[in-house]
Specification:
The strands form six sheets. Strands 1, 2, 3, 4, 5, 6, 17, 18 and 21 form a nine-stranded mixed β-sheet that branches. A five-stranded parallel β-sheet has the order 7-16-8-9-12. A three-stranded antiparallel β-sheet has the order 13-14-15, with no helix packed on it. The chain has two domains: about 5-150 and about 350-485, FAD/NAD(P)-binding domain, CATH 3.50.50.60; about 160-345, FAD/NAD(P)-binding domain (3-Layer(bba) Sandwich). It has helices at about 15-30, 45-50, 60-65, 80-95, 190-200, 225-230, 235-260, 260-275, 280-285, 305-310, 395-415, 440-445, 465-475, and strands at about 5-15, 35-40, 100-105, 105-115, 120-125, 130-140, 165-170, 180-185, 205-210, 215-220, 300, 315-320, 320-325, 330, 335-340, 340-345, 355-360, 365, 370-375, 375-380, 385, 420-425, 480-485. The two termini are about 35 Å apart. By secondary structure, the chain is an alpha/beta fold. About 30% of the residues lie in helices and about 20% in strands. The chain has 13 helices and 23 strands.
Amino acid sequence: MTNETQRVDVLIVGAGLTGIGLARHLQRECPQDSFALLESRSAIGGTWDLFRYPGIRSDSDMYTFSYGSRPWLAPNSLGDGPKIRSYISEAAAEAGVDKHIRFQHKVVSASWSSDDACWTVTALRTDTNESVYFVCNFLMMCCGYYDYENGYTPDFPGRDSFTGQVIHAQHWPEDLDYAGKRVVVIGSGATAITLVPELAKQTKHTVMLQRSPSYIHSIPNEDPWAVTLRKFLPNTWAFRITRWKQMAAQMFGYQLARKRPKFVRKVLLQAAHDALGAEYDIEKHFTPRYNPWDQRICAVPENDLFNAIRAQRAEVVTDQIASFTETGIQLESGDALEADIIVLATGLNMKYLGGASVTVDGRDIDLSSHFVYRGVMLSDLPNLGQVFGYVNSSWTLKADLISKYVCRLRNHMHRSGKRIATPRADENGMQASPYLDLSSGYVTRGMDAFPKQGDSSLWRIYQNYYLDFFNLRVRPVRDSVLELK
């Protein structure tokens, strides 16, 4: 074990899209603050470095998924994984924040001292198995919301009897040969609908086996607005106008789905009918039991999933798994699916703050008992922030707002000579509700470990860019609940 201790003003945990974005803001807007980023992996990118399955891409348009300060200039509305990874790396290098990253540093604990007004963070060097220590005044957790080591894997009866390969999409083997094979993909979320049309280009046959359907929305490969605007305006102007148009469209679509779910449901199902033809059983395979945006709506480019089904290169089967067999999967209906490879696109395991333990003045903290303030800080925890983006829109839109708020807060603290910022909640008078209002399996499985939201504006988790813009960009930093010392 080493006694090495490094000191910075702001410590960022995670060097993915979110952490790099925050670092870019700090570099530009808080030049008085020194900072470092701790990244458990050996490369920049986070999610976009971890996931390597065929066809990996964003499920939000890149005009809003990219940074507002660095336009996405590629023509495709949905960016593929390698391009997004390169985009993040280039954005880091452009701002020089890549020089502040400590790779293979996995944060395991954070301890606050009120006397010293600082966090002491313990990180494990995954390359040497040594512990290293960082001291900072402000700690920002930008490590996402899921377990990087283990995806969600249901307990399938008879799994060991299957003689083919079983892989989880979260850990795709680099050398997997699926050409000419029979592949069954278990799942119906964003990963499955991305994988299936891509695999179907090379496999003998690809089946998407789902327990229940998801809503699917097709978007054009290139945004028509952006295509038109580029003819008359510089690329950066076209990007910014298209970005604001997309923000408005996303917010309008979400609110419409919440207020008129039957109408939005009808529109989505009619689009599936149009893409697959009247003879296809839309009711069985593409009609969810829930309303739009009770779970996230999956986006596909140019109907690629529907096109693969119509071309009979891919098939959707809606059924329950009875057991794995030597040659594939036995279904509860009595049917069987033959497979050489079974892919588990069964979702994520959620993990709050990367699983790091937190103590304050020697007292262990149960993070799930706290409330989230402005979607950024936690009640009664000093100088600790988190970045959690939108689930109904592009993650980066809210991440950008949170980053700007953190810079506002840091600058306010410097101007006023304050070293400690702590949101104080009246928990007795607060009505608690779950952190996220989604019925998705990965959310319901993991919400018990997450903090709660309250019922007043400062303690709500909004899925609305305009409300968050007011709360994080317009509303004064100083308010009735933020204690500054």
